[in-house]
Amino acid sequence: MAHASPYPIGTPGTPWGGAECAEWLSRQSRQRSYREDVLAPLEQLEGRFEVLEYGQLDYPPESLPLVAVRSLEWRDDLPIALVTGGVHGYETSGVHGALQFLRDRAAGYAGRLNLLVAPCVSPWAYERIHRWNMHAVDPNRSFVTDSPAMESAALMALVAPLQDRVLVHVDLHETTDSDESEFRPALAARDGKPYEPGEIPDGFYLVGDSVDPQPEFQQAVIDAVAKVTHIAPADANGEIIGSPVVGRGVINYPVKQLGLCASLTDAPYRTTTEVYPDSPKATPRQCNDAQVAAICAALDFALAHPRGR
């Protein structure tokens, strides 16, 4: 969906300054509750998992705890499976898919993997159904040294001591119609660049790491998800969101160069899921189920192919 008129904040061709960021912030409003949707379900898991607070998001007048879940019987001799959701707060099935996995499927991996799950990395953005944090910064471009996003920096600090033991990392995302109607136009305006309309793919796809793509791993995840929901086809150019399709429903990005959450570890197996919740062919339940199917397929493949670990 292309915008025929300039984004309503800022001057076309000029990057935002403090005034524009303040105007943008003034337009954001709380639309749902992190405490009700995420923290309350996590409280119900206490006794089955260790629920730990790994940081505090201080955005005056709010202070939101950053919470992760890990295996109750954590064993130093087992590899680690990392699951992250809600790095982009508006991508709902990433959050709820992670919670559903913890509730319904995680127990099946006890004694085989140590699980570390951060279901909602960006709670302020979750509540406002937005991509950015309070400072108009994208957490999923901020997994870098001296990160400009508190959300990203806190998660990096949590995972850093475990780096060498992470076998598989699944980062749960969505691609939505609002990417074209709001978030990409806002990004262009913020950075003082022209907005170039794109095409939203209808269906689920994965983003691998172009440096270490692991095509067999990616296809195993796609095959599992295809039993739950439809896989996005390539467009007329053989691409998905401007990147060449390298396998059914798979594209690759240079994840470390872009500062994506998938670069958080050097795990042998890493993937970023992309669910399309606006498809007339998918329900919210299917979207959550697709995320769970992706997690389980990724963990199962990693366990079957540990690559010497």
From TrEMBL:
Residues 30-309 form the Peptidase M14 domain. Signal peptide: none annotated. GO terms for biological process: proteolysis. One of its GO terms (molecular function) is zinc ion binding. It comes from the Bacteria. InterPro entries: Peptidase_M14. Belongs to the peptidase M14 family. This is Peptidase M14 domain-containing protein.
